Amino acid sequence: MGDPFSGGAVGALMGEALKGAISITKKGLAFKSTLDSNIETLNSLAPLVEEMKMCNMMLDRPSKEVEKLESLMRNSQELVRKCSKLGRWKMWSFPYFQSKLRSKEMALQTHLSMNMTAQNTVNLMKLVDDMRKVLEILLKEEFGRYPEYWLIDLCGAPQEPECLGMDVPLRKLRIELLKDGVSVLVLTGLEGSGKSTLAKKICWDPQIKGDAMISKRPYDHKFGANIFFVTVSKTPNLKTIVETLFEHCRCRVPKFQTDEDVVNRLEVLLRVFGKHPILLVLDDVCPGSEDLVEKFKIQIPDYKILVTSRVSFPRFGTSYQLDKLDHVHAESLFRHFAQLKDKSSYIPEKTLVDEIVKGCKGSPLALKVIAGSLCNQPFEVWKNMKERLQRQSILESDSTELLFRLQQSLDILETKFSVNEKECFMDLGLFPEDQRIPVAALIDMWVELYNLNEDGTNAMSIIHDLTTRNLINVIVTRKVAKDTDMYYNNHFVLVHDLLRELAIHLSKEETFEQRERLIIELKGDNRPEWWVGLNPLGIIGSLFSYIMGMLYRQKQPKVAARILSISTDETFNSDWCDMQPDEAEVLVLNLLSSQYSLPEFTEKMHKLKVLIVTNYGFHPSELNMFERLGSLTNLKRIRLEKVSIPPLCILKYLRKLSIHMCNTRQAFERYCISDAMPNLVEMSIDYCKDLVKLPDGLCNITPLKKLSITNCHKLSALPQDLAKLENLEVLRLCSCSDLAEMPDSVKGLDKLSCLDISDCLNLTKLPDDIGELKLQKLYLKGCSKLRELPHSVVKFENLDHKIHVICDEEMASLWENSTIRNLKIEISTVEVNLNWLPGAHS
């Protein structure tokens, strides 16, 4: 037997020994770095663990997981202390301890990455749940400030519509809504088929809403007051929709940080109301918006969503198809709107009516509009309409076909006050879809564009005609009396989406250079092709188009339109084209952003007569670069809505300033208003919650004829030198709830014919010498603290005309006991609905 330590065997053994020694040496060399890593980890974790313990104590959370982590850390610390004492002479034991160090470090990492992460997630979910409960409490406190009956109609649908010929669809929709297990119901149909009308009508159905005003218990019925109606539109914005819901509920509208924040707060809001059944109507949801609807699907008992859309959205399962009207119902609807029962107007033969009804193809919108256009028209007009509809060719789509039919009714609009009413209808396309259009804004435009009279009566006559022809709807959000004294701040126009599209389509029929009105919508980096002027490569790509647009800015086309409307959203990058709108007389700026600067080209618009700036967001937008208007000598009217007004510049030629729902704190800081606007004839400030006093120097504007300060609840006093306004004819101070008294100098307003102090809740007395005024109308409705009339009112007896007093019953008895003979008393009825509140018809 050979020697085991000789030859190849010895070599193999020596090789294995050498490998083992090298391995031990390597592990020994890595021991120091492993030890340092453990020390660094423990030092980093120590303060974090203390913070976790503190948070658990504050939030009263379980400490089990933190205690386990502390136990692992103590074991690791003990091992680290032992390893730190090992000298070089114990190098052969380093691999052993290195393995233990790594094992402890891995145990810590595992606990942190799995157990603690899971526990933190649980804690976070509990914290979020607690925050939701806190928010619910806060919302309930906010909500509790308003009496329960305030909910009636406020959260509900807009004004109840006529729904003729749709009894069967209404009944079927009701059945579908009341079925158990249906959370989302899609009401679908062609454009103009009456989806929105039916959705509004169902909200007023007795079995859906009930008559809560009679029972005094809004929740005695299926949905009661918990009905929310929101129009989504073509460009849905989750934040805007949720803001609308908060405002519907009379809750303070929060400033959302993220979309996740929006969804969380939405859930809290709905859970506050979720103690009772909820019906949420999402009207006019466009194709591709399924994800938006999903955001509103929250697991709450008896919570249902009704969606109206041109598509059925199969993802949600349940849908109801709204078909075209059959001939019987179509004819009935047509006859109603054509007022064929009126014997004083021309009544055509049934065959002619049938032919026109067939031409409307069962569309409620077409039937309504065409019937309105034929109302009280002679035979020739009816026959011409029939021929127009019969000549209709096969068009590209149902939508295009419907637009064609609607256009027929516009071609027979009349010319009134030297202006074609069709032009006025086309002006309605200047404003965003699904938004109510202030009548006061239309009057401002039409007075300057078409030379109508300044009191607005001619403009209102045109609006009445358009309403009679069913082209628009007019809502009056707050009415003090039957006669509004040509005050139209509470009047709004609503336009069906398709009719708005028709107005825009008609505006685009002319070539770019010949258009009377130019309507521009700017979102993000998107720009119309003409934006970069003569640049032939402008349409290749947005980035290249932008760069080339900067290079060719001097080649921008001249805009020949008299009316310019520009709409921007919050993604607009503020890169304005250097347009040359030299002929523009009206500029309408529709915005949706927190910051907004007037375009550079405004300072070159020397023919500009009317500027209308409207922010459609819920929080006022910071308006900048207002000084660009200072050089415009033709600018007569400015209307600002929901903006924070910067210091106003010198506007010597301005005749009317309208401010609605604005922050006015800085507006009158730079200049005394009488120096900035010395020729002002009319001033209107409405719903400006920060207005405490009237601008300094206002009483020095002697041309001023109309002054309206309404719904400014912090206004507590009027200037003592009010009598300086020697030409003032109308003074409105309605709904200024903090106003406690009026100065005696009011008696010096010799030309004052209308004084409106209705709903001034804290007004305790009238000026002693009010009888010196030559008033024609005096509004006193809602002045609950007025207990007596000053003796001077007997002087009204000397007027050569009757004085018209509008008040409530208690105040009426005071006037009836007076000896004034030339007195007309009108008792104002109390309004039940609260549509006059801002945002009630967004």
Topology, element by element:
Layout lengths: L6 H53 L4 H21 L9 H50 L23 H12 L5 E5 L6 H9 L8 H4 L11 E7 L4 H11 L10 H15 L4 E8 L4 H6 L7 E7 L8 E4 L5 H12 L11 H10 L4 H11 L4 H12 L7 H13 L4 E2 L2 E2 H6 L10 E2 H12 L6 H12 L4 E4 L14 E4 L2 H11 L9 E6 L19 H10 L11 E6 L17 E6 L3 E3 L12 E6 L5 E4 L12 E5 L1 E2 L11 E5 L12 H4 L5 E5 L19 E5 L19 E3 L21 E3 L20 E3 L23 E5 L1 H8 L6 E5 L15
Structure summarized in a few sentences:
The chain has 842 residues and is of the alpha/beta class. It has five domains: 13-133; 148-321, Rossmann fold; 324-412, Orthogonal Bundle (Helicase, Ruva Protein, domain 3); 415-498, Arc Repressor Mutant, subunit A (Orthogonal Bundle), CATH 1.10.10; 684-842, Leucine-rich repeat, LRR (right-handed beta-alpha superhelix). It has 21 helices and 26 strands.
Percent range of helical residues: 25-40%
CATH topology of the largest domain: Rossmann fold
Mean pLDDT: 80
Radius of gyration: 36 Å
Strand element count: 26
**Overall 3D form:** globular
What count of structural domains?
A: 5
Distance between the termini: 106 Å
Folded structure, characterized:
The protein is α/β, with parallel strands linked by helices and 842 residues long. It has five domains: 13-133; 148-321, P-loop containing nucleotide triphosphate hydrolases (Rossmann fold), CATH 3.40.50.300; 324-412, Helicase, Ruva Protein, domain 3, CATH 1.10.8; 415-498, Arc Repressor Mutant, subunit A, CATH 1.10.10; 684-842, Ribonuclease Inhibitor (Leucine-rich repeat, LRR (right-handed beta-alpha superhelix)), CATH 3.80.10.10. 36% of the residues lie in helices and 14% in strands. It contains 21 helices and 26 strands. It has a 13-stranded parallel beta sheet with strand order 11-12-13-15-17-19-20-21-22-23-24-25-26, sandwiched between helices. The longest helix is centred in the first third of the chain and has 53 residues, at 7-59. The termini are far apart.
